[in-house]
Amino acid sequence: MPFLLIDFPVFNPVALSLGPIVIRWYALAYIVGIVLGWIYARSLIKKERLWGGPAPITLPQLDDFILWVTIGIIVGGRTGYVLFYNLPFFIAHPAEILELWKGGMSFHGGFLGCVAAVMLFARRNNIPILSLGDITTAVAPIGLFLGRLANFINSELWGRHADPRLPWAMIFPNGGPLPRHPSQLYEAGLEGIVLFAALAIMIRMGALKRPGLILGSFITIYGVARIIGEHFREPDPQLGFLWGGLTMGMLLSVPMIIVGVIIITAAVRRRANGPAPSST
């Protein structure tokens, strides 16, 4: 074995165990991601200068929205995985659709679930849909980062075969004897850290004053980041590579980029929000 090759550090799949209550790392990532996202969203809503006036959503409304978006993430993520990644299996074993503890969530499905939650909650509470989408996607990279770390800890969704001379190439216990890219960490950096930093900088520069700009930027940057990450990630075994070496993750990200660019263009052309001009 090459000197620099790293053996995967085996983690206990259970993060917390309190008697009959067992919390796995993936569930903990969801819980912590939602809580931290809620805290960050509250801080953004409190800063009127970021919105050019009072935020279009109140703190009590945000608190109520958390339940809606949580349900959207879980239902959408599971539905997306069933439809996009393993439909034949679940047709044959429909009862396992509800067995979430076995894993199997799709970001693209979870995103569509969030979109549905945003639209329904916004209409019910008379909140601008684009602004609620902005605040939701501004905090989303936190959960994406933690989710990818959980994938790494669980030794799942590992990368493609890597050159053994790559200093950070790893031997995953369930990935065969050959070294692989730790693609979960690549995605955590791109979809989590880089995306969060880009959106945070845009927010400080006044992006929330143009409804839809953060939403469109999130969709576009995520789509690009996901396609880059897919070049290092091993495709799901039940799907493998699709046409021309493409993966399902790549194909689902292309429409995101197109829609994101359209939303960005519309947001930039829209007149920015701001304080009412003083009378003279």
UniProtKB/TrEMBL annotation:
Kindly list the residue ranges recorded as spanning the membrane.
Answer: 23-45, 65-85, 105-122, 129-150, 185-205, 212-229, 241-268
A Pfam family matched in the record: LGT
Where does the source fall among the domains of life? Bacteria
Query: InterPro entries of this UniProt entry?
Result: Lgt
Which residues are involved in binding a 1,2-diacyl-sn-glycero-3-phospho-(1'-sn-glycerol)?
A: 148
The topology of this chain with respect to the membrane is:
Multi-pass membrane protein
Which keywords belong to this entry? Cell membrane, Membrane, Transferase, Transmembrane, Transmembrane helix
- What compartments host this protein? Cell membrane
Q: What class of enzyme is it?
A: transferase
| UniProt-listed Enzyme Commission number(s) | 2.5.1.145
- Asked whether the keyword Magnesium is assigned, the reply is no
Pathway terms, separated by semicolons: Protein modification; lipoprotein biosynthesis (diacylglyceryl transfer)
User: PROSITE patterns, from UniProt?
Assistant: LGT
Main localization category? membrane
**Molecular function (Gene Ontology), one example:** phosphatidylglycerol-prolipoprotein diacylglyceryl transferase activity
Of which family is this protein a member? Belongs to the Lgt family.
Q: What does this protein do?
A: Catalyzes the transfer of the diacylglyceryl group from phosphatidylglycerol to the sulfhydryl group of the N-terminal cysteine of a prolipoprotein, the first step in the formation of mature lipoproteins.
- Kindly provide the name given to this protein in its UniProt entry: Phosphatidylglycerol--prolipoprotein diacylglyceryl transferase
